[in-house]
Design a protein that fits this description.
Order of helices and strands: EHEHHEHHHEEHHEEEHHEEHEEEH
Structural class: alpha+beta
Low-confidence stretches: 247-277, 332-340, 421-439
Mean pLDDT: 76
Number of helices: 12
Distance between the termini: 54 Å
Strand order of the largest sheet: 9-3-4-5-8-10-12-11
Length: 439
């Protein structure tokens, strides 16, 4: 029998009806909806994907599709009530996984690159401190200057954070590491177990929260950019909401309110429909960029506990014991250069600094920024919608077109932090039905 090998564009899955074997290389680089179509035929499928290293294409495949295939093969796609919790992949008879944990090239350059960019942060290691109750856990603020100081303890702590990112989040790249280290608007928090005053070692990380400060834009800046059809870098939530709800398009696009409602719809506590003025971009907010939980502690309440402590911190529930905050931060910085004009970058001696502030701070040791709201943007799915809804967030925006990589629709949810500054007693809502829906 003669066999023919032919390349097929991933979007032409209908041409595979007569195939006996389909090999998909770097499957994570192909949008998940297309991959699902490719593996739904009556043929044998080999999927290959690079997770780590400079050739890594992310873990969207392993964290989303392969997990579903594994559960489907084991008959776990239904909950305790017998309800289908996700659509099964057609034609799946069995599922088998092989994994290569080392490079086949043994390149010293690749090994160096992996160390520098934390590309060798594989699955998170198992914790030895046990499983403390979520209510006893504590949220700590991470000083990023110390985290990226190349200190031995800081390097170990950084690799543990990146390992949790790789294990629990579908999208990771060296750009994320650079943003975490350099972006001034980004902040990092970690959830750890109960701490003792005599503890001499760094605590084990249970969950990580990365946030980005957004908003506080002037009305003139927003107006000028909208007139020119431009969107400045950063400030994802203010710009997205401004473009969708304040630009007065001819036809409503990517909106969940009626075509005659030209501003953000909100409700007061009496469920009377109110309308926000065009001042949302001027409000100060924080976007939760990522919230990742250690694989051994997922779906056990640790992510919710970390989010709860973060909200209390920005709501002012945690008192700041450092009244001399500015003096504290001044002393925590590295020594200032006496004559900055004489410094030449090429002559700078790069070496570990010795005058670093502590790596971890209790929330009571740092004054919280004054925020009007907390927000999040994520790929809409039932588990995530339930998670954010339980935390008190409400949806204000759903994108009509699906994400090319995951096939999910982007959803933005908000929660107000300060009644006095956030439109007094009003909270962003869409409609009473959306707020009371049971999923």
């Amino acid at each position: 029998m003669d066999f023919f090998f032919q390349y097929i564009d991933p979007r032409d899955s209908e041409k595979l009806s007569q195939a006996e074997l389909v090999v998909i290389d770097e499957a994570a680089a192909i949008p998940l909806p297309i991959v699902k179509k490719l593996i739904s035929g009556p043929y044998l499928v080999f999927l290959a994907s690079t997770i780590n290293g400079y050739e890594g294409t992310g873990r969207s495949l392993s964290l989303k599709l392969l997990q579903q295939l594994r559960e489907q093969a084991a008959g776990l796609l239904k909950n305790d009530k017998g309800d289908q919790i996700m659509a099964p992949v057609k034609g799946l008879a069995f599922f088998f996984r092989l994994r290569l944990n080392f490079s086949i090239f043994s390149s010293k350059v690749e090994a160096w690159l992996n160390r520098v960019l934390c590309l060798n942060a594989c699955d998170a290691h198992r914790l030895v401190s046990g499983m403390p109750p979520p209510k006893d856990c504590e949220l700590l603020y991470v000083n990023r200057d110390t985290l990226f100081s190349f200190h031995k303890a800081s390097e170990t702590f950084l690799h543990s954070i990146m390992a949790i990112y790789v294990s629990a989040h579908y999208k990771n790249s060296p750009n994320d590491l650079q943003m975490l280290s350099d972006a001034p608007a980004h902040h990092l928090f970690v959830l750890v177990g109960p701490l003792s005053d005599t503890q001499a070692q760094l605590p084990e990380v249970l969950a990580v929260i990365q946030i980005a400060m957004e908003g506080a834009l002037s009305s003139s800046t927003v107006s000028d950019n909208m007139k020119r059809g431009r969107r400045a870098a950063g400030d994802l939530l203010p710009w997205t909401i401004s473009q969708q709800f304040m630009a007065r398009p001819e036809k409503p696009k990517n909106r969940l309110i009626g075509p005659t409602d030209l501003r953000i719809c909100s409700l007061d506590f009496d469920k009377n429909i109110m309308f926000q003025d065009k001042d949302f971009p001027t409000l100060c907010g924080a976007r939760i960029v990522r919230i990742a939980v250690h694989p051994d502690f997922q779906s056990l309440g640790y992510g919710s506990r970390a989010l709860e402590l973060l909200q209390e911190y920005f709501q002012g529930v945690v008192p700041c014991l450092k009244e001399d905050q500015e003096e504290f931060e001044r002393k925590a910085r590295a020594k200032q250069i006496e004559n900055p004009e004489s410094l030449v970058l090429l002559e700078e001696v790069v070496e570990p600094r010795t005058d670093l502030p502590p790596l971890l701070h209790r929330l009571s040791e740092r004054r919280a920024e004054k925020l009007d709201y907390l927000g999040v943007s994520f790929g809409l799915c039932v588990p995530l919608l339930k998670f954010w809804k339980r935390a008190g967030f409400v949806p204000v925006y759903v994108r009509q077109s699906a994400n090319d990589l995951t096939g999910e629709h982007t959803c933005i949810m908000l929660k107000y932090m300060n009644q006095g500054s956030f439109l007094k007693v009003r909270c962003f809502m869409i409609s009473p039905k959306m707020c009371s829906v049971e999923i």
